[in-house]
Amino acid sequence: MKKALFYIRSISGGAGKNFIFVANEMAQHGWFVEVNYCRGEQTYIDAIDSSVTKVRLKHENVFLVLLILFKKLLGRNFDAVFSTGIANNVLVILASFVSRFRGKVIVREALSLKAYKIKPPRLLFAFRMIYRLSSWLNKPHVINLNLAMEKDFEESGCGGEKLIRHVIGNPVSVQKIRYRSLKEYELPEWIKNRTCKIVAVGRLVKEKDFHKAIDVIRLLSKDISCGLLILGEGPLKEKLQEYIDDCGMHENIELLGFQENPYAVISACDLLLSTSKAEGQPNAILEALALSKPIVAYDCSTGPKEIVEKYSAGVLVESDEVNLYVDAIKTLLSNNFEILKESIALLENDYSESEIRDLYVRLFEGNA
Hints:
Rossmann fold, six-stranded parallel sheet, elongated
């Protein structure tokens, strides 16, 4: 039986969801999979298949985690190591390099490197230099989520001559999403009679810029009877609630927290709003598209554009200004915008779970 070591610091958000997808699929294909993590949302952890070995690390300190990964790889009991997200990836690359790991090293990017302008430049430079250590590894692979991320990665100078690059998107099961959206769901009473019901989904963190979404609703509500439901948890929850109250928007906006079935909420709304400053391949936008819900999204470095334009799924906001979001929403509403069935069929064909699963299986088990 082949063995794979998986590492991610926090099992949460879209990156965590897709990390679990890969772990479960490889376990279903006969691999022994050991998932190492420091923390995570319980619902995500519960989604890990019972056949997967879960190891919660006692420490989050990067040096201690690096030491743990080094010891595990030094034992040479694994055939592959896998991680998601640049901070996790650099630890796996370092541990593989120091331990002289001879199996496959597979790292998956969660965001475009351009998105990491929010990081100190010296830190990003250090990350890039660590990626170049991959030239000394046996079989190094990096996965980008779309062609724009792939182009950005190539231009960044990350990786060495031996680094093998792949483009593998996030899986989307249109059938499962639509089925779960049919589950009984009761909208909050205050929003039921609003002309425009808007939903925003994501971790409540700086990069998602939900403060901007609140500003959009504050301006839009002057002309249209509207409401916003924000789905997700995160460290900024209290600050966002304070901002909602300070803006006098408590009757127009509600933080619903984590939703085990977000699809029922999205289905009950009229459109999805994404003000995120950084994305890889946003699950929320893919899922809204699967439910035929129009999208208004900020055209950040990668992610929304590839989806909204290819599938004619809504409007991109090219400049991060509140009035432009408002104009985009009004445009969709005035035109009675609808997503074509052909777009949904194309989405299902491009990112079916079976297709994405096969790509990962071939990557782990192939000779490349």
